[in-house]
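Re-run requested by the PI after the first attempt was lost when the workstation crashed. Everything re-entered from the original request form. Ligand of interest: 2-acetamido-2-deoxy-beta-D-glucopyranose.
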Amino acid sequence: MHFVSSVALSALVALVSGAAVPPTHVVHERRDALGDGRWVKRERATGVLPMRVGLTQQNLDSAHEHLMDLSHPASPNYGKHWTADQVVDAFKPSDETVGAVSKWLAEHGINDHVHSENKGWLAFHATVEQAERLLHTKYFEYEDSQTGGVMPACEEYHVPRHVQEHVDYITPGIKLLAPSNEESQAARSSKRNLPSMDDVRQHRPYSHRRLQLNQLGAMSPENAMGNLSSCDTATTPACIAALYNIPPANLSHPNNSMGIFEAELQMWDQADLNLFFGNFSHTTIPNNTHPNNNLVDGGVANTSYLFQAGAEALLDLEVAYPIVYPQEITIWNVDDRRYQLWANNTYTWGFNTLLDAIDGSYCNYTAYGETGNAEGIDPTYPDLNPIESLGYNGTLMCGSFKPNNVMSISYGGQEADLPIAYQKRQCNEFLKLGLQGVSFVYASGDAGVGNYNDSISPSSSSKTGCLGPKGDIFNPTWPNTCPYITNVGATKLYPGQTVNDPESAAYDPAGGNYPHDFASGGGFSNVYPIPDYQKTALARYFANHPPSYPYYSGIVDNATNPTKPDVAALAGNSGGIYNRMGRGVPDVAANGDNIAIYANGAFELTAGTSASAPIFAAILNRINEERLAANKSTVGFVNPVLYTFPAILNDITNGTNPGCGTKGFEAVEGWDPLTGLGTPNYPKMLALWMGLP
Ligand SMILES: *[C@@H]1O[C@H](CO)[C@@H](O)[C@H](O)[C@H]1NC(C)=O
Ligand SMILES: *[C@@H]1O[C@H](CO)[C@@H](O)[C@H](O)[C@H]1NC(C)=O
Ligand SMILES: *[C@@H]1O[C@H](CO)[C@@H](O)[C@H](O)[C@H]1NC(C)=O
Ligand SMILES: *[C@@H]1O[C@H](CO)[C@@H](O)[C@H](O)[C@H]1NC(C)=O
Ligand SMILES: *[C@@H]1O[C@H](CO)[C@@H](O)[C@H](O)[C@H]1NC(C)=O
Ligand SMILES: *[C@@H]1O[C@H](CO)[C@@H](O)[C@H](O)[C@H]1NC(C)=O
Ligand SMILES: *[C@@H]1O[C@H](CO)[C@@H](O)[C@H](O)[C@H]1NC(C)=O
Ligand SMILES: *[C@@H]1O[C@H](CO)[C@@H](O)[C@H](O)[C@H]1NC(C)=O
Ligand SMILES: *[C@@H]1O[C@H](CO)[C@@H](O)[C@H](O)[C@H]1NC(C)=O
Ligand SMILES: *[C@@H]1O[C@H](CO)[C@@H](O)[C@H](O)[C@H]1NC(C)=O
Ligand SMILES: *[C@@H]1O[C@H](CO)[C@@H](O)[C@H](O)[C@H]1NC(C)=O
Ligand SMILES: CC(=O)N[C@H]1CO[C@H](CO)[C@@H](O)[C@@H]1O
């Protein structure tokens, strides 16, 4: 028997157990179907079960208000960030919740439960019989036909009516979690399909959705370095400084190293950094200057082999160093190299393992029916892979590092590819770190309103890289749509222009300097509604510059199961191709075209919002430097300030971000979904932030 209707099932359970569920109890969770037939129900479970009761956390709804309260420039609490302990305390389940659940367990003779460190759940061991009496259910073994793995689960379970509001969910329960393909492979003890060291050495990222590289033969560093007359063809540090009026730095607070995230085997090397410093740093950065390495779960941040170095890592460092030096930079290289080579890394990018490493409470944090990392999506540690020196055989790092005040991340995927619960749980964590004064700055994406199609990026969600049955619906990026991070789109100078001309939204059609279409990523979420801080800007945009495309209006429901946003259903038969109810991306922009770098011993020009994010992040880092020197707090979550004072940015009003067979959106006066509010004006930003408490 694989499936019976819920009603019939309840009757059957009652019949088989011979004990009706008492009227004091209610069904807490029920699984309606076994799905694709992957799982096969076997005999009754036996033995001892590791039980966990996820407790309802308080104040989650008010978390947003708390963040706005200390991020809004008009708030008396501006800048009064919380400590990590204050965050745990504010969101832990109430004493009433802990009391009610403990009392219920005690009534069943369960007294020796453990309350987790983040206060989110109670854990205890129970025999199957004990658990079945507690939950008025029956546990069976379920076998995963793909791996042979077996796990206990039930079809539904009950809790007392008065306890229900205090329980998020209970495991083992109705969930059937497929082990990741990694574990499946390990389970089969097979070494097939696993990378060798040679694969690692020769690995070249085939599809950087946030970075596109090409060498421009005609250009030489000598032509690019001396003066500002060639900023239209090569963006050097001097060009960036001139565009945004950034004076050389001279402060370096001991606790203000700038954070930069790397994955996908992106390693820096000293030789390339030295070539870059020697040729391009208009301020004097000495040879052998290099970042600190925070190595998360087996990450490797640097290499001494030129050919192994990664252009993304070098680009990030080479745009940021000239802005922040003499301040230091900290590279976060996340996940062991085998996972970094994992094709499915494009779905995860290691953000959850990064967040675990900087906030231990996230490792076991429960929200939207998920606790901890998602099996099958996130890497699991220890990595039991037999290949030496590639796998990280320690346990998952939880709270092993302090976050930097500003974290710059030039990686990401698409909102439509990740389960809703997974995204929202992760987004809450950006909120919690925002409460602690940390700024997360993300690149908004390089494929305009869509995503690269299968021929460019094998992991993209459809043949065209766009959504819906016709492949014409715009495809917003992830995790960018989370309202608690700051997204940076890309701008450029067109030939003949100088740093004194206004920039345009970056767009390079394929076949020019770069192999693929590159356009500033932007659009509207299908998962998150428009946040308050953005409402006026978006209302003005739709009123004054309504895009000519048909649209739909809706937000996908909160899901407590691992389903991905069904954008086609949301659009229905409206014919709409973008959403007018979603959070808009990006928030701001910075140059991301013809960026001069050294990589693999050679001078190169690169393009991508990959450059824009670390430029903007480095500027925030500079403002933190000045605020810290004046005994003020860090800038933390900056969006409420940016949207309240858009005049601290240079509005970009020219350009488009093509994708999905359209010319995309247009840059217009005010906020727009390709350049946000505009590019930085450092003196104005600094003056504003120094005037805030
Ligand atoms: C500036 O660079 C251009 C080449 O990009 C060159 O033609 C010009 O002579 C340079 N000017 C100065 C003053 O060095
Ligand atoms: C430090 O840099 C600022 C500009 O950011 C400048 O005004 C100041 O004079 C510099 N101080 C020193 C000691 O160089
Ligand atoms: C830097 O951080 C450490 C650890 O949080 C703290 O003890 C120290 O006082 C900080 N230093 C400054 C100059 O703020
Ligand atoms: C710095 O490194 C570059 C490249 O390795 C080299 O050409 C240059 O001579 C070095 N400069 C100094 C001052 O050592
Ligand atoms: C500048 O780069 C060239 C290679 O393009 C290299 O030969 C030279 O040493 C570099 N200059 C400095 C001062 O590092
Ligand atoms: C990484 O960088 C550090 C600091 O420069 C250096 O000591 C170490 O040898 C480098 N590792 C590799 C593999 O190049
Ligand atoms: C990646 O995930 C997809 C979809 O879940 C799966 O079909 C594929 O086998 C996975 N690939 C690897 C290499 O794990
Ligand atoms: C973990 O890896 C280290 C270093 O490669 C090795 O010395 C150790 O034996 C490994 N431990 C296990 C349990 O495999
Ligand atoms: C993918 O995009 C490229 C570049 O825009 C285009 O040349 C190619 O035809 C597209 N392939 C598919 C399958 O749509
Ligand atoms: C989704 O969750 C949020 C936060 O818990 C809640 O405020 C909202 O009402 C929920 N929306 C729906 C459609 O259930
Ligand atoms: C505006 O953008 C277009 C490309 O969309 C470009 O050709 C043109 O030169 C830009 N105009 C200005 C004034 O920057
Ligand atoms: C108290 C407790 O069970 N903590 C868990 C938190 O998550 C980590 C990583 O998944 C586990 O190893 C711990 O056991």
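Saved to the shared folder this time. The chain has two domains: 6-57+92-190, 216-690.
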